[in-house]
Amino acid sequence: MIFVRLALFILIISILVLCIFFIVTRNKKYLLIIKKILSYSFYILVIILITFFLLRFIHI
User: Fold this and answer.
1) Which of 6, 26, 30, 47 is the Cys-Cys partner for 22 at CB 3.0 to 4.6 Å?
2) Does pTM surpass 0.85?
């Protein structure tokens, strides 16, 4: 559980830093990086949730 919290904390920090970079520089590449980070994070979240539920059903 601590790894999930740590990963979420790092994800939020990185998105906030990239948002600040975008606000300061108005460079669109930071928005693209944020979009990629969020999409990859969503895919990883789906994989982890599917694995978690499969392991819960198999164990019972």
Assistant:
1) 30
2) no
